[in-house]
Structure formats: structure tokens, C-alpha cells
Amino acid sequence: MAPRRESLKHGKQSALKATKSHRAKQQSVTKAVYGSYEIQPSYLSLYPSESFHSFSIERLFVCPHCYKYTEDENAYFQHWKSFCNFKESAPGCIVYDSSEYMVHEIDGEDEPVGSLLHLASSQNLTHSLQLFCQNLSLFAKLFIDNKSICYDVTTFVYYLVVSNPTNERESEVMGFFSKEKLSWDNNNLACILVFPPWQGRGLGQFLIGVSYEVAKRDGRLGGPERPLSESGKRSYEAYWAGAIARYILEREDQESTSVNDMSRATFITPEDIFNTTVRMGLLGRQNKNTFILSKVAVHDWMNRTRANITSPCAAEAFEFSDASASSSEQMEEDEGDENASNEENEDDSEI
What we know:
Layout: H1 12-20, E1 28-34, E2 37-39, E3 56-62, E4 69-70, H2 73-83, E5 93-97, E6 101-107, H3 122-140, E7 156-163, E8 173-180, E9 191-194, H4 203-218, H5 230-249, H6 259-266, H7 270-280, E10 284-285, E11 291-292, H8 295-305, H9 322-341
Parallel strand pairs: 1-3
Antiparallel strand pairs: 1-2, 3-4, 5-6, 6-7, 7-8, 8-9, 10-11
């Protein structure tokens, strides 16, 4: 008898119970089958132990559309090819659409755009998307050592990078990042991962770029959650350096600017901007509060490092709603008024 579609695991309540009571044990997954890819995980999993026959899983089959999982190969292929609700399109609102990639924004608690899912009710839709984010996080844990939040997804927003379909291949989710809805440190990114089959293609820089564009939309001046891993630190330093170089080269000669000006334009924190310009070797001190920075110094840095400063994102490809844009503009105006009132008390180093 053909296996039923429900045989793929999505046991939210049992998983939450195990996590809350600290009884969840980590399974060893030898191979993860993700669509047509077979991937070797880097770390132990946090999948609920009651979902499997043992703590050593030879092959874990993960749907590349909804991230439900199973050890049953037949059930997996039937679900992936025929039954998955997200087969035709990834969930969420499209906030970026270019010839290469799309970015889908998903609220871990609620998602108003659901017509593509054809589910019976909005309650089922919300439930399904919470499970989607939980299962996405569980899959990500196979490749991220410090990933700990897999079930309490309601306080996060997720951004999927999805390839546009071609004649040869269907669209594929290649990676994601998440951010907290409310961050006391103003973090614009909590977790980022490019799945192994698509690493080395610049998608990490792309996702970082998207996170800063989302921060601009939301009026959230901040950076990634720290501490950063070594690879994360290298990725962010490269992104910050490219953004700073573009900003300087696009300005008129002899035009003065400040760290705060650069921060407002890029939404990179003043501290990250200053530290990055020092690391790039761009600053020459003129007096106590004034530094000299020239386009020549930027070109010298580019020649030394062979850096590519092309923006990883196409500005025209973002599709933020008018409401979101208005909210961001209002926040920036409010911040501008506050900065103006405190201007005399601030020491804004000029460049």
C-alpha cells in the first residue's frame, strides 16, 4: 500500500515537549537527502528523538519545499513530487525579484499571503507556516554549530533566497537568514546559512546585503547578532568594505562627509564603519576630530586586495510595500529630528 502523505514528520507538540523538558537528544545524521542533492551534515541534529527508530540516522530525507522530514524514501518522493503544499511556490511575500533570485519574507508567527497554499482556513495556514519555519531551522542545525532556536519561531522573520526556475530546473531554496522582530541590540540578522550545494557563489554576501536593505525599510540601524563565527566575520568585513568603498567613490571630489553620514546612507553602524575604514588602511588623521580619506586610497586598497565592490543586490529588484517604505521614511525623519536636537552634544568625526 502506498504510504500516506502524513508519514512525513511534523510533530510540533512532541518536539516542543521534548525541548522544554530538556530531554531532546541529538541525533547523528550520516546523509541528508535534500531534493536531488545528497549532503553530508556538519553537526548533530535537534530533530525530536521520538520521530526516529534510533539516534543514528543513515539517510534523512528532507523536502526541499516545506522541510518536512522522514526516513521513508518512498513516502519522501511521493510527498516531494505530488503532495507538498509549497511545491509550486515558496511561502511568504516576495520582497526581491531579479532575473536570478527571489527573496521571500516569512513571519514565523503569522503570514497573510496564503492563496498559493489552497489550505482550508487561515488557522491551518498559520500553523503550516510555523511548522515550515521550525522544520527549516531543524534542517539548518545540521550545518550550523551554534543554532539553538528551532521551535520558538514566532519571534522571528525568515528570508529565503530562491532561484528563479529555468527550463532545466525548478526553483530551489538555496539559503536563508532570520532576524528577531524585536531586538534590544537592534540586530538586523540572527542566523544566516547558504545550503552546501550553493556555497561559494556569493550568496552569503547577497543575503547580508538583503538584511541591510530590510533594515533600511524597517528603520533599524544595527548589525548582525554577535559574536560572529570566523567565516561570518570575514563575510561581514568584506560586505562592509565594499559598501564603504562604493559610498566614497560615488561622492564628489573634495566633498566632506562623516561617519554618521556614511552610517545613515548604508545603515551600517558607525562603529563598524570606523573599524572597517581603519582595517582597510584608508584613514589619515588631519587633526583631533578630522580624518583625510581619498578616492585614491580606496583605489589603492582595491588594487592591494583585488576586491570586487559591486553591490551584491540590485536596488531596483526590491519590492517593499508602500506601507513599509512610509514607515521607514517616518522612522528616519524621527531619527533625524532627534539627531538635530542633540547635534551640539555629539562628537561626529569628520572624514
